[in-house]
Specification:
Elements: H1 8-14, H2 16-27, H3 38-46, E1 49-54, H4 56-73, E2 77-81, H5 82-85, E3 96-102, H6 108-120, E4 124-128, H7 134-138, E5 141-144, H8 157-176, H9 180-184, H10 187-202, H11 205-215, E6 221-226, H12 229-245, E7 248-253, E8 270-275, H13 278-292, E9 297-303, E10 313-315, H14 323-341
Parallel strand pairs: 1-2, 1-3, 3-4, 4-5, 6-7, 6-8, 8-9, 9-10
Helix pairs in contact: 2-8, 2-10, 3-8, 4-8, 4-12, 8-14, 10-14, 11-14, 12-14
The structure holds fructose -6-phosphate.
Length: 359
């Protein structure tokens, strides 16, 4: 049950540090080696391209994992929207390996692709939160997130858990390939820091509640912007906000805004900027100034060290491959607070079901 929590979503947001620690216990061995099925590692090593197939939040988690997967497996990663790939797959590489990301393991759109993949005889891995689910049974391999039941329709701990699970796979493959950057990537330490970063963010819910009250209570639309990893987080952040608060929101590559979309900025339009990457921070700051000069209400979520204004929301620092996890948490709380303050049913948004078992 949800205990003293008003909504499951809040409980599941709060569970994320524990999910990170549980994943460490599951996938990190005492000897410093990853406890990832060697068969899966081998299948990835034999592949020339990794295809991540998923829907919604799980699709966004694929993007949040892409940089780390590519760096550590030295294999290109391509993302596929399940509902589109079901109707026809693009030209595939010679040795594809398919990774299905699905909290429920029951998403019909993803299953359509898996059926095709099985027909073609390609190997596959399902990363899921539900043992014995359809996508788990029908794929060659399974890795479990083990986040515990996710009841709220809006997915939170499955997103962060999927990325962390793929971190173990990435590290295991890199190590097996003798890659120095894989050996240097101390995943136990880094995920512990992620857990601490999440805890620090969770202790600042009041601050987010106040920003929401000031900026998001009545607006009909909003934007999340970011560059590189923060762009991927912006896509997930905006999906979450749309889903449970009914605010129309776009997650945008910060640099794309000026190529048309900036015409939508009016007085008071909330623009939430994600800034975790020092190499592009100044550019995104520039985009914040552009929208502010057109009347937008800017809200900056910055990683520690990149904050500038006293009201920037600060997220403590984690490894660059893992910022999708740390940076998404405040955005989950932004979505949650906006929904609560608008008096909506956070756990059961209109028109939505937890597992989408129709195409
Ligand atoms: C968003 C959400 C959906 C699901 C999507 C895929 O919060 O919950 O977008 O992420 O329907 O579901 P799974 O991961 O179960 O395949």
């Amino acid at each position: 049950g949800k205990g003293t929590y008003p909504f499951y979503m809040l409980k599941e947001i709060d569970e994320q540090p524990a999910v990170m620690r549980k994943l460490i216990a599951t996938y990190a061995g005492e000897n410093g080696l990853m406890k990832v099925d060697p068969e899966i590692v081998k299948a990835v090593q034999e592949s020339d391209r990794l295809y991540i197939i998923a829907a919604g939040t799980s699709y966004n988690a694929g993007y949040g994992s892409k940089m780390m997967l590519e760096a550590l497996t030295e294999t290109p990663v391509e993302l596929g929207v399940a509902s589109e790939w079901g109707y026809g797959m693009p030209l595939l590489s010679k040795k594809p390996f398919f990774i299905f990301l699905s909290q429920s393991g029951e998403t019909a759109d993803s299953r359509q692709v898996l059926l095709k993949v099985n027909e073609l005889g390609y190997p596959s891995l399902t990363v899921t939160n539900v043992p014995g689910s359809t996508l788990s049974r029908e794929a060659t391999y399974t890795m479990l997130i083990g986040a515990g039941p996710e009841i709220a329709v809006a997915s939170t701990k499955a997103y962060t858990g999927q990325i962390a699970t793929l971190a173990f796979l990435s590290k295991a493959v890199g190590e097996s390939n003798g890659l120095q950057i894989a050996k240097d990537f101390d995943l136990v330490k880094e995920l512990s820091l992620v857990a601490q970063s999440i805890e620090a963010t969770l202790s600042e819910k009041e601050k987010i509640a106040k920003i929401v009250e000031k900026n998001l209570l009545t607006t009909r639309n909003a934007f999340y912007i970011g560059r590189k990893m923060d762009y991927f987080v912006a896509m997930e952040a905006s999906l979450k906000l749309k889903e449970i608060s009914y605010v129309q929101c776009e997650g945008f590559a910060a640099g794309e805004l000026k190529h048309g979309t900036i015409s939508l900025i009016e007085k008071g339009t909330p623009v939430l900027a994600l800034i975790s990457d020092p190499s592009v921070a100044a550019h995104t700051r520039g985009n914040v100034m552009e929208v502010v000069s057109r009347g937008a209400s800017a809200i900056v979520i910055a990683q520690k060290g990149l904050e500038q204004e006293s009201d920037d929301f600060v997220v403590s620092k984690v490894h660059p491959w893992l910022t999708a996890i740390s940076m998404v948490v405040p955005t989950q709380i932004f979505a949650y607070e906006t929904s609560v303050q608008r008096g909506l049913d956070v756990d059961k948004p209109r028109n939505l079901a937890k597992a989408v078992t129709v195409e």
